[in-house]
Amino acid sequence: MKLSHVVESQQFTVPLLMELFARTRQMEKVAARGGTLDYQNRIMASLFYQPSTRTRFSFEAAMYRLGGRVLSTEQAGYFSSEVEGEQLEDTIRILGGYADVIVIRHTQAGGAKRAAEVSKVPVINAGDGNGGQHPTQALLDLYTIYRERPIEGLSIAFIGELDRGRTARSLAYLLSKFERVKIYFVSPTEMQMKPDILEHLDEHDVWYALESDAAKVLPEVDVVYQTRIRPERLTDRGSHGRYTIDATVLTTMKRDALILHPLPRTVEIDKAVDADPRALYFRQANNGLFVRMALLTMLWDE
Ligand code: CP
């Protein structure tokens, strides 16, 4: 199946995910030998309206490892003609004449969809708005799990500010495609996962539960998907410790659990956790390079 744009996780079928993951395994080897020149005539435009470390750098590194070149702005709101009032659609039409793919991180949910609707080259959503999506993050998250164990039958806890969590939203959509997955959404009530995701899970007969107490859920799950929690957003500011993983919490978790986090982290994972073999978040970020290399080639090949 040919992908034209990557805007939301719902676009991916299980066979397409398996094709991407097989290609990602190849890209791990390509990157290990320094890269390839197979895509040396390709140009990627990275258009970021919000800050990024992992997504922008890994996309740009992916492009270089494929032999291609990069046009980039990391503060598009200041260093593009948006400052002069130019509309996103016009910016995309222009960049489509210069580049073979546009990777966009936008301030508004739906920004990437708007871009894709007018673009003559593939558009990749690198995160849009609060409560939008971040599909390539979800792809690398799922790949990280897939490298460790079967996804069918998995139990997973999403923890943190889930109402604004575009990574959690995108990963929930992907998980809904697999059999017998159990999802716990663990969050203060005021930050719980939004109804659109819950409705999607209902429609696809996916088991889920809403929880506010991480201690009840952590001993039960195969995967902990920790996300940001900002104390200043909590009604009870001192309660963020109830959603933090530290050395004590580790003792309550399964011995073979996987701990993921899209990063960046602040208070929600103590540094003492980093040395634990269950902590996969740095490997997860590294997998972003391989998944994004694979995704770029899938957009262009065929
Ligand atoms: N996970 C993620 O999107 O990180 P960045 O904001 O650094 O790209």
Order of helices and strands: HEHEHHEHEHEHEHEHEHEH
Low-confidence stretches: none
Task: Give the distinct bound molecules.
Answer: phosphoric acid mono(formamide)ester
**pLDDT average, as an integer?**
95
CATH architecture of the largest domain: 3-Layer(aba) Sandwich
Task: Describe the protein's architecture and organization.
With 302 residues, the protein is an alpha/beta fold. Helices cover 36% and strands 15% of the residues. The protein has 11 helices and 9 strands. It has helices at residues 14-32, 54-65, 76-79, 88-95, 111-118, 135-146, 166-175, 195-203, 214-217, 247-250, 281-300, and strands spanning 43-48, 69-73, 101-106, 123-128, 155-159, 182-186, 207-211, 223-226, 258-260. The protein starts with 13 loop residues before the first helix and ends with a helix. Bound molecules: phosphoric acid mono(formamide)ester.
Q: How is the secondary structure organized here?
A:
Elements: H1 14-32, E1 43-48, H2 54-65, E2 69-73, H3 76-79, H4 88-95, E3 101-106, H5 111-118, E4 123-128, H6 135-146, E5 155-159, H7 166-175, E6 182-186, H8 195-203, E7 207-211, H9 214-217, E8 223-226, H10 247-250, E9 258-260, H11 281-300
Parallel strand pairs: 1-2, 1-3, 3-4, 5-6, 5-8, 6-7, 8-9
Helix pairs in contact: 1-11, 2-11, 4-5, 6-7, 6-11
Residues 52-55, 127, 134, 137, 262-264 line the site of phosphoric acid mono(formamide)ester (CP).
Relevant terms:
Rossmann fold; binds phosphoric acid mono(formamide)ester; five-stranded parallel sheet; 302 residues; globular
